[in-house]
Write a structure and sequence with these properties.
Elements (H helix, E strand, L loop, with lengths): L4 E5 L4 H12 L6 E5 L13 H19 L3 E12 L2 E11 L6 E4 L7 H8 L4 H9 L9 H6 L6 H19 L2
Parallel strand pairs: 1-2, 1-3
Antiparallel strand pairs: 3-4, 4-5
Helix pairs in contact: 1-6
The structure holds inosine 5'-triphosphate and magnesium ion.
Inosine 5'-triphosphate (ITT) binds next to β3, β4, α4 and α5.
Length: about 180
């Protein structure tokens, strides 16, 4: 690709933007201009299923692409999803180009501790709960819940970088 590709990301979250940068910098053949923008996700602040989280990711990708008139829109959404084993963190990404069909990919998921899950079931949002439990601010912009609960082995940037790599790869495959 010999021209700069304008990529709109539907967030100002630092971990998410950094993940998009790292995923594209792993492919030096691309010259990209990455721009973040706060957009509505169209779902709850704390999505509570894979369905809702996927919908938020797609909604963010489309809103960011349209608002910034970019060639590509990317949406990354964090949520939780219930299973018989307990409440899991789930994360989803969507990539939209000029076609209407989004590419979608999911990230790693881990079981949340019971005490955290209970608070979310009572209506709290994971970001503020994490900050409260750790007595810090803006964990969601850094290692995230996934980083804390995996003892720093996989942080939010790494987790979302993986998701964006999965998105770019699917987009490349379709455009081969
Ligand atoms: O500004 P935006 O893009 O909304 O960034 P955010 O940090 O709020 O991210 P999401 O809305 O996608 O995530 C939903 C909630 O889960 C929180 N969260 C924190 N770490 C997380 C992780 O590792 N996985 C999933 N959700 C996480 C996040 O802060 C929110 O409260
Ligand atoms: Mg949010």
């Amino acid at each position: 690709m010999d021209h700069v590709v304008h990529i709109a990301v539907g967030t100002h979250n630092k971990a998410k933007i950094q993940a998009v940068k790292e995923a594209f910098s792993a492919s030096p053949e691309y010259s990209v201009h990455i721009e973040g923008m706060s957009v509505a996700s169209g779902v709850a602040e704390q999505p509570f299923s894979d369905e809702e989280t996927i919908s938020g990711a797609i909604h963010r990708a489309r809103a960011a692409k349209d608002a910034l008139q970019a060639s590509i829109g990317i949406g990354l959404e964090g949520g939780v999803t219930d299973t018989s084993a307990g409440l899991f963190i789930c994360n989803w990404g969507a990539l939209l180009d000029r076609n209407d069909e989004p590419f979608v990919a999911g990230g790693a998921r881990i079981l949340l501790p019971q005490a955290i899950a209970d608070r979310l079931r009572n209506g709290e949002e994971l970001g503020p709960v994490m900050d409260d439990v750790r007595q810090r601010q803006n964990i969601r912009h850094h290692e995230g819940a996934v980083g804390i609960f995996t003892n720093g082995r996989i942080n939010r940037i790494q987790m979302f970088t993986h998701v964006v790599q999965l998105l770019i790869g699917q987009w490349e495959f379709r455009n081969k």
